[in-house]
Amino acid sequence: MWSGPRNISTAMMRAWENREDCAVSDEPLYAHYLADTGLDHPGRDEVIADGETDWRKVVDALTGPAPGDAPVWYQKHMTHHLLPHIDHGWIGGLRNVLLIRDPREVVASYVKSRAEIAADDIGLRQQVELYEELAAGGEAPPVIDSGDFLRAPEAHLRGLCDWLGIDFSERMLRWPKGPRRSDGIWAPHWYAHVRESTGFEAPGPRAIELSEAAQAVVDACQPHYARLHALRLRVA
């Protein structure tokens, strides 16, 4: 699952982990991303110390056996973690899905945890590039818009399971509140809301106010979002 930050990707991870047949991995390229870019993210030093900073070793693990030899393996990835020097040859061997969200919603949520933000921090440009690369390779990935998904989570999950050729599980719709051992070490900085959740919550209207700099990021990302939004999975 290739997402950007603040995009229900952790709640989606909860849904898959709650299946009895599924292992999950939480942003396995994050430590390499921080070590290589030098960016100052919340808990940066902890993330680097706890994770694997050699992207080749990460890829070797991601393309090997699933943890515990689980039949299903949900890998939660951020597309902005795919730095330009990382080879993409391994990605085509996975079943890939893109998870998108309106950049206005993403930026409004992101700046609550990290004030500094640039367009590439939310991964939409990289999602478009990955979509086009995978489509050219023969299998265009399904695109799920989080706004649509939250209005009909079961229908979207059933459609995704059908595409993957696996059975849907009702356990994907509800999960126990609290942290998971599988959560990244950065969870205290980013996962407060999802740790209190027990399922997907339908979106409601809310007022969003952004600084001029934050709005500039939204404006830069909007064309990429529009491109993917037009390709999104539509369910009955």
From TrEMBL:
GO molecular function, one term: hydrolase activity
Alphabetical keyword list: Hydrolase
Similarity field: Belongs to the class-IV pyridoxal-phosphate-dependent aminotransferase family.
Keyword Transmembrane among UniProt keywords: no
Top-level taxon: Bacteria
Gene3D superfamilies recorded: P-loop containing nucleotide triphosphate hydrolases (3.40.50.300)
One annotated GO biological process: carboxylic acid metabolic process
Family annotation (PANTHER family): AMINO-ACID AMINOTRANSFERASE, AMINODEOXYCHORISMATE LYASE
Protein known as: HAD family hydrolase
One Pfam family matching this protein: Sulfotransfer_5
InterPro entries for the chain: Class-IV_PLP-Dep_Aminotrnsfr, P-loop_NTPase
